[in-house]
Amino acid sequence: MKGNRLRWYQVVYRALYHLGFVFWQRDAPPEDLVALVEGPSALPPGRALELGCGTGTDTIYLAGHGWDVTAVDMVPKALAAARRRASAAGVTPRFIEGDVTRLPDLQVGDNHDLVLDFGCFHTLPEDRRPAYVTGVSGAAAPGATFLLYGFKRPPKAAPIAGGVTAEEVEQRFCPAGWDLVSAERTSVETPVVPRASDRFELWQYHLRRASH
């Protein structure tokens, strides 16, 4: 990407927010994240990084449970809404406007104990995925947990291309020092998408960063 020229995926997402067509938007965090934060084997609060935070549902949830959260999104309108919601909730995560494939340029820092991506990586074009993997790997602490959500196949009605499979996750992330702990089909309800819709084959990938 040269200069400040927007990539096509940035233009698409800004347009979708402008039109109000944000079918991925949720009012609550996914159950898998809640289990990690509040379950019997809950992670101790630490540093978290959310990639593609949108209007901040998961970021605000984590901040409200004691996490020091940095959240990245490339859509100014989404970030403005996230900041308003965080203020109303009485939490102060760090919001950064920028491209998740350029994390070193955004100075997000390193040693994040938890990384979360709900529906960001799976929309990236092929040529930006290696940079994403490099940036995420550099931002994660040894032993970090990574929850990655993405469509195995994009829903027919979605104005996005892409998708991600367990095979691709293994091929891209394992050589970079991650272990794929689990890959499971899941379903998350949004105001637009009913739970367990067959058109939305959503998968959750649980990865762990090598501890050495």
Mean pLDDT: 86
Helix content: 25-40%
Spans of 5+ residues with little confidence (pLDDT < 50)? none
For the record, the CATH architecture stands as: 3-Layer(aba) Sandwich
Strand order of the largest sheet: 3-2-1-4-5-7-6
Multimer state: single chain
Please tally the β strands and state the result.
Answer: 7
- Major β-sheet, in short? 7 strands, mixed
CATH topology value: Rossmann fold
What is the succession of H and E elements? HHEHEHEHEHEHEE
Using only C-alpha atoms, the radius of gyration works out to: 16 Å
Can you characterise this structure?
This protein is α/β, with parallel strands linked by helices and 212 residues long. It has 7 helices and 7 strands. It has a single domain, classed as Rossmann fold (3-Layer(aba) Sandwich), CATH 3.40.50. The chain has a 7-stranded mixed beta sheet, sandwiched between helices. The longest helix has 14 residues. The termini are far apart.
